């Protein structure tokens, strides 16, 4: 296929499927799986800007390319990445500002961890792996005589290697992950697709792609590298290995013959890709951030002006209350969290009790048939139990069990008629088109009663009681955002709609309720949300704010400006509960649905 046509000639848009499309993501939008692949609908963002969660691995890949294909040192590669790139010059993401110092610190560590893992594997098996500059794609081009036929491509992300193991020609894909090698669980379908691409794919001409990046990101079929005399041809064996950029651990996901890889794809991978192309219902959520068809989606609520910002010139991002609060404490901490960098669990805020109690209740509320919680739903052993990945012991566990017992008195499922609509732990999304921001919220529970929706948030407390009325909103900004979701129509507001905070203590529970139709409540909600969102929206440099925020910051290892004066032990175990309003888990992740 020739790639010398003018950019004015629009090729038939490709259908490009990556291996992770073979299994739906939890909470993802079924229709987005199809839109993401089909470049005639929207496809991946043709501008090539990596989303925050993709940025670390995108820039890591750029650094490793310089090391493996140009022979640079890790230090020189990272120094090169720290230089701004003029937009349109082909740098990763077309950045026009220096990389954040915290992200650069992680890239240095991740590069060395990845290369250490590679060197260790080569020393163990005595095989030298040759880095492959081009990447492999399984391409299906249409027959010239078939009308309306589309090109299809099956792709996989990772770093490729080729080598001989005895008489066997081996292709190996090493897939970097930011945490440990076993942190990310990949489905059998995804691994089967990855192995299939290795076994049957041809090499893409990366030089041609780099010369015209917008053409290929925009949907033109990839230009394939012509076979030459020294090309070893198809492999006899393929391997897929997950590699930790944190501690150099590895996990072999697939190791088998090329023929077995094709059979595995037929049995475990092909149907997953077919289901991705069938799409399904549109479900607003995190996927709306990068969806190419969001402007015409009738399910994503439009809330122009909700954040109180009128500036569409900045890159599209997502925002949540937890992200806003984190940014208020330290912009660098908020940014490193949004990138999904590995967090130091030993330095995280001591709110394991809050997380475990809410996770236990979420599990109860998702039972079928739907039924209210009772005192019989407590942990069997009140002194030792776990939920949501948090284990509680001793007095802390007993306090948590008492809070769950208190919840049974105010469970919102009491008295709900059979068949009532209940949404548990589901991320809500709305598009502030004036700010170019996807606004996210995650109520603990939404329930529909007497024709009206109510928003319920749950919190644990051992300190003084919360204030009631509109004064509650400054202490609990997630309630303020819920009020605005009702006000702007992102949540349908009925005569009986309410925004509720359920406060659990070892001695009992009470529910504070706000009327989203109240002018006074609405005015205070706008003030609280605008005060949190405004400074975040105009900040593109994410400067550190050394001080008290350093004390429990789980990203200190990546921050060169951390203040050691606050390096004191963080209460854990049976220590005091966190102050009211803190809502981060032990890994520093929020619960308001930020990306």
TrEMBL record:
Residues 29-52, 582-595 have a biased composition (Basic and acidic residues). Keywords: ATP-binding, DNA damage, DNA repair, Helicase, Hydrolase, Nucleotide-binding. Pfam families: PDDEXK_1. Residues 325-560 form the PD-(D/E)XK endonuclease-like domain. GO terms for molecular function: helicase activity. Residues 23-53, 561-595 are annotated as: Disordered. One of its GO terms (biological process) is DNA repair. It comes from the Bacteria. This is PD-(D/E)XK endonuclease-like domain-containing protein.
């Amino acid at each position: 296929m020739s790639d010398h046509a003018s950019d004015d000639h629009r090729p038939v848009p490709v259908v490009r499927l990556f291996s992770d499309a073979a299994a739906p993501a939890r909470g993802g939008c079924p229709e987005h799986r199809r839109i993401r692949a089909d470049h005639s609908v929207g496809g991946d963002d043709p501008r090539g800007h990596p989303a925050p969660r993709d940025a670390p691995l995108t820039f890591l890949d750029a650094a490793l390319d310089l090391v493996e294909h140009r022979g640079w040192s890790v230090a020189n590669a990272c120094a090169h990445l720290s230089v701004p790139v003029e937009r349109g010059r082909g740098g990763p993401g077309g950045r026009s500002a220096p990389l954040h110092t915290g992200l650069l610190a992680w890239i240095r560590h991740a590069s060395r961890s990845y290369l250490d893992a590679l060197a260790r594997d080569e020393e163990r098996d005595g095989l030298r792996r040759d880095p492959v500059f081009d990447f492999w794609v399984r391409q299906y081009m249409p027959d010239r005589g078939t009308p309306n036929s589309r090109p299809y491509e099956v792709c996989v992300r990772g770093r490729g290697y080729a080598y001989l193991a005895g008489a066997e020609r081996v292709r190996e894909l090493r897939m970097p992950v930011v945490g440990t090698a076993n942190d990310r669980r990949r489905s059998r379908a995804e691994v089967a697709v990855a192995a299939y691409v290795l076994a049957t794919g041809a090499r893409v001409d990366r030089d041609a792609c780099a010369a015209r990046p917008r053409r290929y990101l925009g949907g033109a079929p990839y230009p394939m590298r012509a076979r030459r005399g020294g090309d070893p041809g198809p492999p006899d064996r393929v391997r897929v290995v997950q590699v930790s950029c944190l501690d150099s651990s590895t996990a072999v996901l697939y190791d088998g013959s090329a023929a077995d890889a094709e059979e595995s794809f037929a049995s475990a991978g092909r149907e997953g890709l077919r289901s991705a192309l069938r799409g399904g219902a549109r479900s607003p959520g995190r996927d709306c951030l990068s969806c190419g068809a969001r402007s015409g989606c009738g399910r994503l609520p439009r809330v122009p002006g909700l954040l109180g910002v009128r500036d569409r010139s900045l890159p599209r991002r997502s925002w949540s209350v937890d992200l806003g609060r984190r940014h208020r404490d330290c912009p660098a901490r908020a940014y490193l969290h949004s990138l999904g960098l590995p967090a130091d669990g030993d330095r995280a805020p001591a709110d394991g009790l809050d997380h475990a109690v809410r996770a236990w209740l979420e599990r109860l509320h998702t039972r079928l048939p739907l039924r209210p919680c009772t005192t019989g739903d407590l942990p069997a052993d009140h002194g030792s139990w776990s939920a949501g990945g948090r284990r509680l012991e001793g007095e802390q566990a007993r306090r948590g069990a008492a809070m769950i017992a208190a919840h049974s008195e105010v469970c919102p499922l009491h008295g709900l008629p059979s068949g009532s609509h209940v949404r548990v732990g589901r991320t809500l999304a709305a598009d502030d088109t004036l700010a170019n921001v996807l606004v996210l919220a995650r109520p603990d529970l939404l329930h529909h009663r007497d024709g009206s929706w109510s928003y319920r948030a749950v919190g644990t407390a051992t300190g003084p009681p919360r204030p009631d009325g509109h004064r509650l909103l400054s202490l609990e900004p997630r309630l303020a955002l819920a009020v605005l979701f009702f006000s702007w129509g992102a949540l349908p507001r009925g005569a009986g709609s309410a925004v509720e905070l359920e406060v659990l203590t070892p001695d009992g529970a009470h529910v504070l309720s706000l009327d989203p139709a109240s002018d006074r409540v609405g005015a205070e909600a706008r003030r609280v949300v605008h005060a949190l969102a405004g400074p975040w929206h105009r900040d593109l440099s994410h400067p550190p704010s050394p001080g008290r925020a350093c004390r429990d910051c789980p990203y200190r290892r990546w921050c060169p400006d951390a203040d050691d004066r606050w390096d004191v032990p963080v209460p854990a175990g049976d220590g005091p509960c966190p102050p009211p309003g803190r809502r981060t888990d032990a890994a520093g992740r929020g619960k308001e649905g930020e990306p």
